Structure formats: structure tokens, C-alpha cells
């Protein structure tokens, strides 16, 4: 992975806990979606410098998932630590495309693609990505994504 791509990836290690697992002792698949939402919250707060709780609670800007695709490759078990890696794939006027991979070492456990849309939590309508959020995103996304955005 080159330096630019590494810079454009947010990695978050997470220990698989009892609460994530089903009676078979493996991650109950909807829990991966909870984990990906936690990943997005931490990415905003820690990497982008946008306090996610403030964005939702005070600014009333929502970021719901409007499109989601997941592939589950291998089970994860309680006690393992998996690394969730988030990369921006698209940046639109009102939407952010994400690629999220969950892996344990070199083994991919799941892969998700998501499209998030900025919304007003007062009206429920989609809104343009606020200027400060867009600015933070432009410092995170790969240069190729920004050049695609300018050409579209």
C-alpha cells in the first residue's frame, strides 16, 4: 500500500466481545453493521476532527446509510481482534461512498460498501455536505477521488 493510500484509510482495531456473538460463539452478522457505525463515528471524531455526537445532537446533521452491500467471508470469534479499515470511494454533493473491510491478520472476515447521505434531522431531507465536513473529507480522501469529483 503506498503512502497516499495508507493516509486515506482509517483503521480501527476492535476486540470481539461476548455481546457481539450468537450462541454458536461467532459474530452475529448484524453486529458487524453496529461495528461499522462505531467505526464511522470514530473516524469523524478522531480523524476528521468533526465531533460526531455534536454533529447529530446539536447541529442536527444526520448521516444515514442509504445503500449497503455486505459480504461475509469467514466467522469471527469472541476474543479475537479484528481490524476495520475504512476508505472513501466517492464524494458527492450530498453523499459519501465508503469501503469497509474487516480482517483478522491477512484474513478478510467481511467487506461492506456503504453510501451515506447528509440529512437535516429537523426535516429528514437530504442536504449538501456542510462546508466544514467537506473540507475535513478533502484532507482524508485519496487525490484520485478529488479529481473525479472535480470532473463530474
Short description:
With 152 residues, the chain is of the alpha+beta class. The chain has five helices and seven strands.
Note the topology.
Layout: H1 3-7, E1 9-15, H2 30-48, H3 52-57, E2 61-62, E3 65-72, E4 81-91, E5 95-104, E6 107-117, E7 119-120, H4 131-138, H5 143-151
Antiparallel strand pairs: 1-4, 2-7, 3-6, 4-5, 5-6
Sequence of secondary-structure elements = HEHHEEEEEEHH
Sheet of most strands:
5 strands, antiparallel
Quaternary structure classification: single chain
Q: Judging from the principal axes of the Cα atoms, what is the shape?
A: globular
Describe it for me?
This protein is an alpha+beta fold and 152 residues long. It has one domain (3-151): Hotdog Thioesterase (Thiol Ester Dehydrase, Chain A, Roll), CATH 3.10.129.10. It is built from 5 helices and 7 strands; from the N terminus they run H-E-H-H-E-E-E-E-E-E-H-H. The chain has helices spanning 3-7, 30-48, 52-57, 131-138, 143-151, and strands at 9-15, 61-62, 65-72, 81-91, 95-104, 107-117, 119-120. The strands form 2 sheets. A 5-stranded antiparallel sheet has the order 1-4-5-6-3, sandwiched between helices. A two-stranded antiparallel sheet has the order 2-7. Strand 5 and strand 6 form a beta hairpin. It is globular and about 45 Å long. The chain starts with a helix and ends with a helix. Residues 1-6 have low confidence and may be disordered.
Amino acid at each position: 500500500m503506498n503512502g497516499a493510500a495508507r493516509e486515506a484509510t482509517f483503521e480501527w482495531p476492535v476486540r470481539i466481545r461476548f455481546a457481539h456473538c450468537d450462541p454458536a460463539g461467532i459474530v452475529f452478522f448484524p453486529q458487524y453493521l453496529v461495528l461499522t457505525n462505531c467505526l464511522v463515528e470514530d473516524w469523524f471524531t478522531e480523524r476528521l476532527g468533526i465531533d460526531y455526537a455534536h454533529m447529530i445532537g446539536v447541529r442536527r446533521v444526520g448521516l444515514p446509510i442509504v445503500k449497503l452491500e455486505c459480504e461475509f467471508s469467514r466467522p469471527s470469534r469472541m476474543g479475537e481482534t479484528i481490524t476495520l479499515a475504512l476508505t472513501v470511494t466517492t464524494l458527492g454533493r450530498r453523499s459519501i461512498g465508503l469501503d469497509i473491510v474487516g480482517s483478522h491478520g491477512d484474513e478478510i472476515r467481511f467487506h461492506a460498501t456503504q453510501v451515506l447521505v447528509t440529512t437535516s434531522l429537523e426535516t429528514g431531507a437530504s442536504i449538501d455536505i456542510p462546508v466544514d465536513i467537506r473540507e475535513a473529507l478533502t484532507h482524508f480522501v485519496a487525490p484520485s477521488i478529488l479529481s473525479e469529483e472535480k470532473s463530474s
